[in-house]
Amino acid sequence: MSQPTTKPNETQEQPPAAAPGLSRFAAGEDPIKRGQILDGAKRVFMKMGYDAASMNDVTREAGVSKGTIYVYFQSKEELFAALIERAKGLFAEQMRELLEQSTSAEDGLRRFGLAFAHQVINTDMIPSMRVVLGVIDRMPSLCQRFFAGAPTNAKTVLRAFLERHVESGQLHIDDSELAARQFIDLAIGSYFRERLFNQLPTDITQAEIERVVDSGLKLFLGAYSPPAPENT
Asked: What stretches of the chain adopt beta strand conformation (E)?
């Protein structure tokens, strides 16, 4: 992973020396403290952007010491990457639980589409993505983690759902990876692009969101429903 560039006359922040006898692994295991740091970092990055933010800013916002923050994260880049992974993991788990509650392929896809549209329209997913895009030229590997199709990615969760329903006979799909990308695009329509460029209307109703998702679902099922049995 590439390191961020340093401006002229600007020094890189260095982690303080660990206290004698301190085990970084043991101290870094506290999930509450880790979450506290990540919550503070999120507020700082969302307010200041990646480049302007510093580890000192995060320590103040999170209410921890500089020694503590470096026990958990050795650099600003590592902290930012952890934020990306946490957000992806939480969203993917929410989508997995939602799909597990579905009664059919159609029901699950509708639930997924509505939840994904809500994520794009009403949460800080897109503002966070703008922060990532701000460093894409200097830190391409970090940005790739945002879009990576890892197990913590909602698209991968959807792909697994599609594959299960292919096996059960409810869907007929040759390329589940492609189909998962297609459904996400159909479900959120132009909301992703409009929110990214701050052009999304503020008066979108739930009925309108459902209309877009249902239209995308209809197209998707039209392409991937099993062929009707031939009359004999």
From this structure: none
The set of residues, in sequence order, having a beta carbon less than 8 Å from that of 63 and lying 6+ positions away, is: 36, 40
Which pair of structure tokens corresponds to residue 35? 């979450």
Q: CB–CB of 7/48 below 8 Å?
A: no
Categorize the per-residue pLDDT at 152 as very low, low, confident or very high, splitting at 50, 70 and 90.
low
- Please report how the helices 176-188 and 154-167 are oriented relative to each other, as an axis angle in degrees rounded to 10: 120
DSSP 8-state code for residue 62: H
Centroid of chain to Cα 212:
22
Of 58, 45, 51, nearest in space to 15 by CA = 58
Question: Residue 21, by phi and psi: left (phi above 0), alpha (psi -120 to 50) or beta?
Answer: left
Question: Could you tell me the two tokens for 165?
Answer: 């329903």
pTM, whole model, 2 decimals?
0.80
Nearest Cα to 18, choosing from 65, 81, 71, 89? 71
In the structure, what pLDDT confidence band is assigned to residue 107 with cuts at 50, 70 and 90?
Answer: very high
**Nearest alpha-carbon partner for 37 in 81, 68, 14, 10:** 68
What region, left, alpha or beta, does residue 189 occupy, with left being phi > 0 and alpha being psi -120 to 50 degrees? left
Q: Where are the beta strands (DSSP E) in 2-109?
A: none
Cβ density class 101-128: b for 16+ within 10 Å, e for less: ebeebbebbbbbbbbbbbbbbeeebbeb
